[in-house]
Please model this.
Amino acid sequence: MDSELQIALIGAGAAVVVLIVAYNKWQERKHRRHAERAFKSEHPDILLEPREMAEPAEPAGGVEPVVSEKVSEDAAPQPVRRPVSESATRRGTPAVPEALDARADCSVLIESIEALEVSRLWAAQRQQLEGLNKPVQWFAFDDGANVWRALTEHSAGAYHWFCVAVQTVDRRGPIGERDFAYFCEGVQRIAEQFLAVPAGLPARADTLSAAAALDRLCAEVDVQIGLNIVSRGQAFAGTKLRGLAEAQGMVLGPDGQFHARDDDGNTLFMLGNLEATPFTAENLRSLQTTGITLVIDVPRVTHGVQTFDRMMQVANQLAEALQGSVVDDKRHPLGAEAAALIRTQIAQFHERMADQAIPAGSPLARRLFAA
Model:
């Protein structure tokens, strides 16, 4: 009895297992047919049927086929190329202005994130750098023209890049520690005021050492040569002096001297009063003097020997017209031998300047030997 019951239970279990397996197979076939209907395509596969795709049939009646531009929602979106705005590009750091020279100028570049008006910058620098004993230059970089523009109090516009430079050497000597610190601290305060960024401040020791070395070089060639015209008894009248000087093309300057200039407006030589009183348009009407002096500033003129010869010619003409004598600083008559010696000295000074890559009369030389 028990054995028959066990056999019946085993048979029933086996039937259930068979039923479950059959049901699973039926479900599997059902889902496969559903998937085939969902993903079935009417278009031939270009990989399996390349020949048929290479020769498409012409549409009946010569009608042009219509190509649908509708994009499937499942297709990946294509990136859109947009023009890059100027503000999205990072501006490169411009080089220092060509007007500056690393031997004589201590420069700092300043970047303003937002364009900064020159008028605001100029007011700030006037306040922060006032009292500095060396010349200061400001420049603004014109991004559109890709050039540096020298700034003055009358300049306008707004810029991102600025350059400020202090001249480290002039005839008053090299820059000192006080002026160097004053310059660096002032530039830092200006940058902070406008949330700008100074691109590195110069090293103190290197700057001061280089300035001292350049000043020693300048001292070796800093020469002015003068010719005096003294009266033989009767004083020279100011009105006559003015007429003679202007006849030579010389113009009275604010320094109280008449200037002979080249075509670019640079001074070749000067004519001044041998006495202490400087010339003015007013006092020349009544002034009387016992002597005048002509001076050539050797490192500031390009053609020194030729300029000296011209000055000698003017001196002789003035002496003849005023009935005076051309003499040196010791009141000795200046003859041909002394003039030849002066020419040789001028040529030597100019040669030494050329050897140091500071040509006489060049823009750098005129700045270094400015009063």
The two ends are 136 Å apart (CA to CA). The longest strand covers residues 105-117. Residues 2-39 form the longest helix (38 residues). The chain has two domains: 94-215, 222-368.
